[in-house]
Amino acid sequence: MKYLLPFLFALSLNAAPNIDPDVEIRIKGLVCPNCAVGLKNIFKKNSHVKGLKIDTKKGLLFLQYWGIEIHPSKIKTMVKKSGYEISSIKWLKRGKSVRGVFNNRYNSP
Length: 109
Hints:
CATH class: Alpha Beta
Largest sheet: 5 strands, antiparallel
Strand content: 25-35%
Number of domains: 1
Distance between the termini: 64 Å
CATH topology: Alpha-Beta Plaits
Strand order of the largest sheet: 2-3-1-4-5
Number of strands: 5
CATH architecture: 2-Layer Sandwich
């Protein structure tokens, strides 16, 4: 019983969601946990998002899908609604990396 409390405390410190991300999104200006609240709220509203994890130290958002991929322009719109700008999107499962969202085939004029 005396080991239960320290064990539960250790678990609470490591309570970040354990996800297998499909996409890594680098976001400009994401520096604190309070900044991440708006992003979490926007992405949790999308029914295709299975899970997300935000690393404020590196300015990264990791996104996991339910199976249907979210279009890059939709990701860009959701991030913009939160008040941020994307600097890069990297697809982790497909091995495809896009530097700057305007340089991909979806957003070209």
